[in-house]
Amino acid sequence: MTQQSTRNTVIQPGEPAPLWSAESNAGRIDIADYLGETPILLLFYMADWSSICSAELPMIEELLNLAGGIDLKAFGVSPDSPACHSAFAHQIGLDKITLVTDDQNKIARLYRVVDREGLPKRAAVLIDSNGRVGWVRVEEHRDRPRSMTEIEKALQLARQWSGYSDSLESWLLDRPKVMQIPRNQPLLPPTKLQLRFWGTRGSIPVSGGSYLRYGGNTSCVSLTSDAGHLFIFDCGSGIRELGNLLMSPEWSGDPTAETGESGNKSINGYIFLSHTHWDHIQGFPFFAPVFQPGNRFHVIGWSNCSQTLSGILAGQMEQIYFPVSLHELPSELAFYSLQFGEVELDGATLEGHLLKHPLPSTAYRLALGGKILVYATDHEPQNIPVVQEGVLLGEDVIDPNLVDMAHKADILIHDAQYSVAELKEKVGWGHNSGVVAVDTAIKAGVKQLVLFHHDPNHNDEQIDRLLEVARQRAAQFKGHELKIVAASDGLGLDL
After folding, report:
1. Helix or strand run (H / E) with residue 363
2. 7, CA 20 to 30 Å: which among 153, 223, 360, 456?
């Protein structure tokens, strides 16, 4: 190959990585500081804010999160300014990918990933820990997303260099294990579980004399065990009071947890987000444990590919809304998008299923200690129910996948924001009724149903009436011993 043809060819595996220095959203970056120390992934892309780049970079970030403890530096490279990079990275929630400003495409030229017009191609280059190119991928069409399968191959190479299995299939099996909080020793199987409701209201917190019995905080539910398990469902305003409990002497916590300099044991737990509408995340900035060093929380949920979970939570903590940013919190936070299937966390089996909601909401099924809990808030029926006495609603109304998920559950927490009459006026709002909740529970053979996500316009007496309607509906079906309660702030149920 002649020198001229080499210059026109994309950089090849085995070649030494060219040196460069450039500004980024994290300050000045000199690649020489990393060459020979750690593998490096360079992601060349066209521009911040483009629809393709806005979607694919969070997907790559998610793959990096799921790759385990690999030693890897990842840089996105485009001509955009550092200020633009900072805003873009914040908007889409990038933590592991630093965005580098490639002024006049100088870095792209060094790696020979420019087209005939001198514009950067959509390319990726993996550099090994010896400072040599180990893998290169250039997409044929700039205006199409890069292959995530190919990115997986690059990350699997980096995993091999970090001592992991050389099998991509092995990595696929390992991914759910990354969501498990690392512990010095595993938690013992529990003998007692307690479910507690900290926020049961939908849409917006409410207060006043009309809301004394059911409460006014937005969605937050905890499941704890005598073995130290801590699972939190949603971060509505109710999570503030949960946080106060966890920080108090009343919380015995995880017996395997380390004791910090303050003399307090670290708090380790999982937060499952059904979705990221404001009433399900607004309490997170007021959750006291995330302000204490040594505490660890893994936040798990579904998000679309245009934003990461961390980016969404960071958005409501921007300086114009809140004085402390997400990235300034001293606790250890990790974020994972659950693409469903089963995940095992501290001996509990977790499954997810997307529900019908304007922003898809996730139902969770958690099995632990021989008990099953299903949390299914914020979803509406497939169609408006036509209720007939003594006849269960069919699959044209009830989600059959939710029925399967809730099969023989000990407790089903189900959205029951509206009456059936109100449902007809709220089509597309993403909420349900107690009648649909009852029929779902009976079809699934659930032991106890909890009506949840009360409308902020419903006072205590109105919720009483909706509960009575639900109980009357259940009484129509003899042989089904279904216990029904309406959730209230502070309610505790033993499983």
Report:
1. strand 361-368
2. 153
